[in-house]
Write a structure and sequence with these properties.
Layout: H1 6-16, H2 18-22, H3 25-46, H4 52-55, H5 63-85, H6 89-92, H7 102-108
Length: 115
């Protein structure tokens, strides 16, 4: 049973430790994917959807509509997977566990003493 609390709980979890969440590689990837999903919707509505009256009754939507729909489904699947991976950051890419590869430190936003 969904009580509707999950949305506010997500915000509370972020505000409880924002730096910890921001340093999470999976959180960052999720935010980038969310922006890309929004761009995909914007492109769809400003290109393909403008001609929906022309192809709405066709048995098969145009290739561009199918491509945008497929990208949307892919983006949402990736968003779900990345959201599920956020808690596992501490096992793989924790800023407190040094030394780590430079790319991990860069992506996670880790501040290290190495210059």
């Amino acid at each position: 049973m969904d009580c509707g609390w999950h949305s506010s709980d997500d915000h509370l979890l972020f505000y409880a430790a924002p730096l910890l969440r921001y340093q999470n590689i999976f959180f960052r990837a999720k935010m980038v994917t969310l922006v890309l999903a929004g761009v995909n919707v914007w492109v769809f509505h400003n290109t393909v959807y403008r001609r929906v009256a022309e192809w709405d009754l066709d048995p098969v939507p145009p290739r561009r509509a199918r491509l945008r729909g497929g990208l949307a489904l892919l983006a949402w699947a990736v968003l779900i997977i990345l959201g599920r991976m956020i808690p596992y950051q501490v096992y793989w890419f924790d800023c407190k566990k040094q030394p780590q590869p430079a790319i991990v430190n860069l992506l996670a936003g880790c501040i290290t003493d190495s210059r």
